[in-house]
Amino acid sequence: MKPRVTVITLGVNDLEKSLQFYRDGLGLPTQGIIGREFEHGALALFDLQHGLKLAIYPRNDLAFDAKVPLSVPNATECTVGHYLKNKAEVDAVMEQARQAGALITDQAHDRPWGIYSGYFQDPDGHLWEVVWDPRFETEIIE
């Protein structure tokens, strides 16, 4: 396996509501919902950096497709990290997420290990960490 990720898929309860959150609230580019013509196939893809995609897919269809039982969501199983160039950008994204309907679980603040970060949950409870880390400033790509 090569050391790369090309798609991150989040299981969602309401595809339309999640589409609105990510597209309209956070401003992620997308063609909208595709695959409606297929049973268990509707999803939305968002273009991220360097060909990386974020997919949202109904939880029940994801469980069906992967042949795993549908289980109770747990926010601490995984987080999605969004690194930014400075504290002001972190604060701006946290506010954008709040205005889009995210639940702010931890306001951005300085952490003892030298970063500045905060957490929010999307409408389905997926946990996002918005981060400024001075060690990675030169690696952040627009």
Automatic annotation (TrEMBL):
VOC domain sequence ranges: 4-133
Matching InterPro entries: Glyas_Bleomycin-R_OHBP_Dase, Glyas_Fos-R_dOase_dom, VOC_core
Superkingdom of origin: Bacteria
A Pfam family this chain is assigned to: Glyoxalase
Annotated signal sequence range: none
SUPFAM superfamilies hit by this protein: Glyoxalase/Bleomycin resistance protein/Dihydroxybiphenyl dioxygenase (SSF54593)
PANTHER family: BLR2520 PROTEIN
Name this protein carries in UniProt: VOC family protein
Protein species of origin: Ktedonosporobacter rubrisoli
